[in-house]
Amino acid sequence: MAAWPQTDNPHSLVTYPLQQRDCPREPQLYNQGMTALDAPPRISSAQPVPLERANYGDRAFKLVLTAAAVVIPVLLGLLIYQLWSGAAPAISRYGLSFITTSTWDPVAEEFGAFPLIFGTLVSSLIALLIAVPLSLGVAVYLTEFAPKAVRQPVAFLIGLLAAIPSVVYGLWGIFVLVPALRTTAFPLLRKALGFLPFFQGPIYGPSMLAAGIILAIMVMPYVMSVAREVLLAVPNTQREAALALGATRWEAVITAVVPYARSGLIGAIILGLGRALGETMAVTMVIGNRHEVAASLFAPGYTMAAAIANEFSEAVGDLHLSALAYVAFTLFVVTVVVNAGARLLIWRVARGSAAGSRAL
């Protein structure tokens, strides 16, 4: 290529005739005496790909994504159909009285799931009462107050807790948690709060309260992780504005950060509730598995998931199997209702708030 000559005036543009070595493939340019500025740019000889052919990959990718999106409601519909068809004999025989009666006698073919529903809801409620304050407190500390050397190791450990299998939590509950609760914590609670009906009666060890505590331990990593990510997504302008108005660090968190992220925090709590409602093995190992409704939290209880896990392999009668399928269908309905109510609550809380809060 020919080099531009150096001039004293940087704004002047000098042109000069092309040499033949500069246009080895266009000798006519040299013959016509054209300059470097007149020479057209060199055009590649490759033929452009037709748009129809280039669009094949996009169309295939769109079809794959559409098929994946359609599979989800289809699988959900098949699940509902299977549960309904399996529970049809019990539904036709017991109707809605199945969820309001307490008798569970496979020999006499009398089944009622009210104690199972009661145990599922009470154990999940106990888990949330214990896990939510601790989880939100840890999340706020890690995002707002913890030193940088502490944040990542603690967040990593929280992620490890979420990866532990539930049967490991159940074994730990049997050999460590239940003996400790039976000998120390439960007697202290009965001595201090024995005037309440929730803390009266004999102490067995495996109980509704033990199941709630182990569920709280299992739920906390999920609520902590999601709440931490939600708080990290809050813009720093929220904190800076509160601090500029004279608020302390704690006041800035309470008045600016947490209200901005409240819809995301509610979503984290609902995620923990869904985890607690469907937990099976750990609860089965520490709740006592007694089909009754008791006011005392020291008494054993039962949950829907635990009943299905314990009795499905041993059920011999068709009506017993149908009753367990009815229990599974009830658990599915309870989970859907709870999540739908949670979504409605999140929508009402986020309505009229900042756009970032709605996006969370």
Task: Give a written overview of the molecule.
There is one protein chain. The chain is built from 14 helices and two strands; from the N terminus they run αααββααααααααααα. It has helices at residues 27-31, 51-54, 56-94, 114-145, 148-162, 166-193, 208-232, 236-244, 249-260, 262-278, 281-286, 304-311, 318-350, 355-359, and strands at 104-105, 110-111. Strands 1-2 form a two-stranded antiparallel sheet.
Quick overview:
By secondary structure, this protein is an all-alpha fold. Helices cover 66% and strands 1% of the residues.
Please describe the structure with a list of short key phrases separated by commas or semicolons.
360 residues; mainly alpha; two-stranded antiparallel sheet; 14 helices; 2 strands; 66% helix; globular; disordered N terminus
Which percent band covers the strand fraction?
under 5%
Let me know the average pLDDT.
Answer: 82
What is the helix tally? 14
Strand element count: 2
- The 3D shape can be described as globular
The main pleated sheet reads as: 2 strands, antiparallel
Structural class: mainly alpha
| Order of strands in the sheet with most strands | 1-2
Measured between the Cα atoms of the first and last residue, the distance is 57 Å
Helix content: 55-70%
- Ranges with pLDDT <50 over ≥5 residues? 1-7, 10-18, 354-360
Tell me the Rg in angstroms: 34 Å
> What are the secondary-structure elements, in order, as H or E?
HHHEEHHHHHHHHHHH
What's the structural blueprint in terms of helices and strands?
Layout: H1 27-31, H2 51-54, H3 56-94, E1 104-105, E2 110-111, H4 114-145, H5 148-162, H6 166-193, H7 208-232, H8 236-244, H9 249-260, H10 262-278, H11 281-286, H12 304-311, H13 318-350, H14 355-359
Antiparallel strand pairs: 1-2
Helix pairs in contact: 3-13, 4-7, 4-10, 5-7, 7-10, 8-9, 10-13, 12-13
